[in-house]
Design a protein that fits this description.
32% of the residues lie in helices and 28% in strands. The chain contains 3 helices and 7 strands. It holds the Pfam family DUF2867.
Length: 174
């Protein structure tokens, strides 16, 4: 599976979230097969697709930012069953918005606000394509500085999680 650079779909729910966007990227991957998947299946695969090296990086990040008073990743042994409804909490994400083709996740913190869109769209070569878009709004100079250091990792992490999500969607459909 290949994740490639993409763009935010024109009718994304992200356009309803009014924060100024200081950073935006989109990656996409084709979901193999002919049967469409639901946004709930996609969300479930996304939240169970974190590579172990990303988990380790998040633990290092948490040990650093905890000293700065920033939010850290909640560590749960048992992952709760998610209904993917606005207001739910899932790891570092809040479920902010949802429709049949898109799930909006995000978090607002002292230094920055971020949003993640998981968007299912038709694809020419397969039944669907998953587009993962991240937007970041800096609340202050610390947010800009923080994301300066996070951005290189972000650009590695998102495609890795996207590929693993699509792999899980493919194997669960078989």
């Amino acid at each position: 599976m290949i994740a490639f650079k993409s763009s935010l779909p024109g009718n994304s729910l992200l356009y309803k979230h009014p924060d100024a966007i200081h950073y935006k990227d989109s990656f996409a991957a084709n979901i193999p097969g002919t049967q469409p998947v639901s946004i709930e299946q996609t969300g479930k695969a996304f939240f169970s697709s974190t590579p172990s090296w990303v988990t380790k990086l998040m633990q290092i990040r948490d040990s650093i930012v905890r000293r700065m008073g920033l939010k850290t990743t909640p560590h749960r042994k048992n992952k709760p069953q998610l209904a993917f409804v606005p207001g739910e909490k899932a790891g570092i994400f809040n479920i902010l918005d949802k429709n049949d083709q898109e799930l909006i996740l995000g978090e607002d913190d002292k230094h920055l606000n971020f949003r993640v869109s998981l968007y299912l769209q038709p694809s020419e070569s397969t039944a669907q394509q998953l587009v993962c878009t991240t937007t970041v709004h800096y609340n202050n100079a610390w947010g800009k500085l923080y994301f300066f250091f996070v951005k290189p990792f972000h650009r590695l992490i998102v495609p890795a999680i996207l590929k693993k999500t699509v792999y899980q969607l493919r194997t669960s459909a078989q």
